[in-house]
Amino acid sequence: MDVSSHDVVVLGGGPAGSVTASLLARAGADVALLERAHFPRYHLGESLAPRSLAVLDELGLRDRLDARYLRKYGVRIMDCRTGRQQRYDYSEAGHGEALHAWQVPRADFDQQLLLRARELTVKVFEGHTAEDVLFEAGRATGVRARLEDGTRVGFTARFIVDATGHDALLATRLGHRAPVPGIERTAVMAHHQHVTRNTDDTEGDLDAVLFPHGWVWNVPFLGDVNSVGAVCSATWMRARARGESLDHFFTRTLDDAPLARAMLSPATRLTPVRAVTDYAHRAAVRAGPGWLLVGDAAGFFDPLFCAGTHLAIAGAAEAARTLLRCLAQPDDEASLLERHAALMERAMSLYQGLSQALHAGDLTEAFFEARTRSARQPLASVFAGDVFGEDPPWRAALRARFPTK
Description:
Blueprint: E1 2-11, H1 15-26, E2 31-35, H2 53-58, H3 62-68, E3 70-72, E4 74-79, E5 85-89, E6 101-103, H4 106-119, E7 123-126, E8 128-136, E9 139-147, E10 152-162, H5 169-173, E11 177-179, E12 185-193, E13 206-211, E14 214-220, E15 225-233, H6 234-237, H7 246-254, H8 258-264, E16 268-269, E17 274-277, E18 281-283, E19 287-288, E20 291-293, E21 299-300, H9 307-328, H10 333-360, H11 364-369, H12 373-384, H13 393-401
Parallel strand pairs: 1-2, 1-10, 2-7, 4-13, 10-20
Antiparallel strand pairs: 3-6, 4-5, 8-9, 9-10, 11-18, 12-15, 12-16, 12-17, 13-14, 14-15, 18-21, 19-20
């Protein structure tokens, strides 16, 4: 079996893997990235948070991405049961220096990030499926991968970064992966053309429509295509009739969300309906000797807060900074990884508590009771991705009101 050696091997070429690998290579590390697919490929999670933009700036991508994607200045929450609406503008967030994000077709966005990784000298291996992470004396030391023709190849490294997304290779292998209580949800979605849109700066808003079975997203892209999907409870998914097509079930689901259905009235569906089942999970341990988890491989909760893409991009930047320190200061590895894990825990637990409250119905009144700019600031800040670092008073108040369960 052929074996190559590197400073870091990254498993997965989505945003978490590409950004981690790019930042490491940009700082001079020898990085290999293994991706089982050939890009472009479809993926869930098409809405970014403003606080991710600093990382994309660091990679020199702002102008490239701004030319390709629709700017997004806020989030609009609507409730089908009461007709109430509330808009959260990113300028209302506590740190307003990044006042917009983008709505991104993930197939194209992920391809742009992987292209940038190549430009920054990352050795990218598409069509390579990571089968196992190899350990010696309790330390991750390498990866065994399978090519599409069945050939096995090996990689050794000082660090292995698991960015395998919902597959969560390492967390599953080590027994650290667990479902998140209260978020037993399935997402069903498709792309549509000619969905009704606003014509001002709010055109790029993420629309979130609360309805009896969960919530519906409406994500507009540059041009005339929108991603529309429904995050549905396990109870509603069991209402899918035996033999009922996913397309018909999706249509029937949206019939119970009249505000979303009205937006779709002039639209044509462009893609088959897809489903992602039981997507919420988290890893109890996110780093160890020679390894680290990043992005969805460490956990995923709910797409409303754009937590998946933000933890992938901003979390990857934190991971890269930690790994560079570990490579330079090997004697301090354990304490550096411990600090990184604590930083990620604070961010992820905030998203978890809010996601659990969303699906329990406990967050609904909080969305609509905020009538002033200062009252909207806490949730606007979370929508903007202000989740890292020590808790300011507003974040501590959100944690107290919506704790993890």
